[in-house]
Each structure stands twice: as C-alpha cells, then as structure tokens.
Amino acid sequence: MEKPVVIVGAGLSGLHAASLLTAQGIKCIVLEARDRIGGRVLSTSVAGRPELGTFDLGPTWFWPQYESTITNLVNELNIRTFEQYTEGAMLVERSEKDEPERYVLPKNSNAKSIRMIGGVQSLINAVANTIPSEIVEPETRVTAIRLDEANAITVEADLADGNRKNIAASAVILALPPRIIARHIEFSPSLPPNLVTNLVNKPTWMAGQAKAVAIYERPFWRDSGLSGFASSWVGPLQEIHDASPETGSGALFGFFGMPAKMRQELGEEKLVKMVIDQFVRLFGPSAKNVSSILYKDWASDVETAVEEDFHPLKDFPVYGKPPQEGIWDKKIIFAGTETNSQFGGHLEGALLSAEQAVLEITNG
C-alpha cells in the first residue's frame, strides 16, 4: 500500500490540504496535538446559554472583495454569512479623564468584512466533513521527523495515553506555525541553518494577542447610534468591535494593547474587571450588565506560541514560503497562513498555502 501524505496540524490549512488530497484520491492522514480541530480558529458559546450565540476567540472575518479563495469555499460549502455591523459612530478614548470622542466615519471608508453564522468554526467543520473522519488523529503530538539513508520518511508522535507511534510517510505537510516547527519538532538529519533561521523569524500570527468578548442580552449601544467600534489609548483593550450574532444577543470584543507578560501577571480575573470598567466608560452603565465574558490569551497556548511571540509586534510581519533545498526538499512542505506572502495572517493565506502545498505534492 502506498505510504500516506502526513499532514501535521488540523487547522484550516491542514484540513483544506487533506480535503484537496482526498478529492484527488491521494491517501493522507492528519495528526493534531490538540484534542480538537481548528487550530487558531476557536468559536465558543457561553456554558449553559447556547441561545446567546457562538463567538470567535480567534479569527473572525474575511473580506470578499479581496479574498476570492475563502469566498468561493464558503459559497461552495453553503456556509451562511452576514456583514459585520458598522452602522453608527465609532469612539476614540484618549485618556481616562476625558469623555470618549465620537466620530462618524465616511460611508464605505472601511472594506466590507463578512462573518460566518456559527463562527469560523462552521467553516472548519464543513471542511472536515469533506474528508473521512478516521484520517484525523487528535491528541497526537508530532515530536520528530526522520529521513533514513534510503530516503524513507518516518514521523514520530506522542499519544495522549503515553504511548508513541511511528508513521511511514510519502511526504509531510507541516501546517503549523513556523516557530512551533522550529522549536518543537526534531529533524534528523537537521534542517539547513538558513531554513531554521527563516522559521524562527516568522512571528506566529495572533500568538502574542489576547481577546475578550463581553456578551449581553442585546446590542444596547446601537440605540445610542454607536457601531461598537472603538479605539483606545487607555486600555486594557486597544481595538474594540461589535461581535453580536446576526440576531438576538449583543456582544463586544476587543484585542488587548498590553504585552503578554503583563497580562499573565495581572491574571484573568483582574483583566476581566478592567474590560468591564472600560466598556462602562465607553458605552455607559448598561455595559455593567454582562451575561458572560469569554477570554482567550493565545500567548498562553502552547500549541500556538513560543517565548519569542511574547513580544508585541511593531510592524506587520514579512510572511512567505520558507526556503527549501537540500535533503529535505520535496520531503517536507510548509503550509499555514505565515507561509503565504500575500495574505499572511488571514484565513485566505491559510487556504492558499494549503493549495500550494498540495500542488507541490501532485507535481512531484
């Protein structure tokens, strides 16, 4: 029997690669360290209150006017979508002493962003449904990839029960953050030094970030002519958006402006209180009446972040395909959003990188 293509990582990129290979009759398996699929896609609901909706703690939007691959896939998989709510004024918070300033942005000043009903997890689940469920192996952490003198590839992985397994592969698609590959997977023979340097110098998208979502019974800020969009120099949240589902409950989400180490020192309980206080300053006393607050610090997620990711990004990272040469060329193929030069950091980049990886497999 032909050896399978082993895909490491069951995020959007890894699952899309598996879907494309399966459609072409190419045997593959997907190994995932987490106990769930989706990677940095994480959509969740409030425990005991599913009627409030599903909220994204990872990526949230896509932009159909620029991103044709995800737009076509969403249509093909019949995923229901809605436009991000942007009607009304935005708020700017320059200091804690002064009232937030209101600004009405010119019409069409921002590109139209689209969200998915049920969160981005609905896309993950739909892609996963295009492949046989048995080829995805969760709680299987790849620790080493070896190439012997006969050019045979072996992937070594630790299982949740403490056992290990070895898998013979025809090729390996690494659909993981580049820094995770460099820091957590042993290669024998070693990867070329210039390749390791390239991987380590690619910051993991979102890895230094944390996100909070405050959920309310209804989007009360819209009554005051506010869009839910806010920018703050005070914090703790630096950038805030309306995260409400298409109908029903209301929600606001924001990205933290403080470094990962400071968040970890303060702790989740203190941060949540600070978030509510900020929303009260911005949106008024009704913001105290939260149904729930969801919080995710990606810097504390060992499957996402390494220590280098704790430092806040000063500029948008330079992403793109790592250099491949020498003995590992065409044996390991890199995928994941950081390996796409045009849409690095976006869901579109994850999909395009998977398509490029599969093209390399099929072109031999």
From TrEMBL:
<dbReference type="Pfam" id="PF01593">
    <property type="entry name" value="Amino_oxidase"/>
</dbReference>
<protein>
    <submittedName>
        <fullName>Monoamine oxidase</fullName>
        <ecNumber>1.4.3.4</ecNumber>
    </submittedName>
</protein>
<dbReference type="GO" id="GO:0097621">
    <property type="term" value="F:monoamine oxidase activity"/>
</dbReference>
<dbReference type="InterPro" id="IPR002937">
    <property type="entry name" value="Amino_oxidase"/>
</dbReference>
<keyword id="KW-0560">Oxidoreductase</keyword>
<dbReference type="InterPro" id="IPR050703">
    <property type="entry name" value="Flavin_MAO"/>
</dbReference>
<comment type="similarity">
    <text>Belongs to the flavin monoamine oxidase family.</text>
</comment>
<feature type="domain" description="Amine oxidase">
    <location>
        <begin position="110"/>
        <end position="358"/>
    </location>
</feature>
<dbReference type="Pfam" id="PF13450">
    <property type="entry name" value="NAD_binding_8"/>
</dbReference>
<dbReference type="InterPro" id="IPR036188">
    <property type="entry name" value="FAD/NAD-bd_sf"/>
</dbReference>
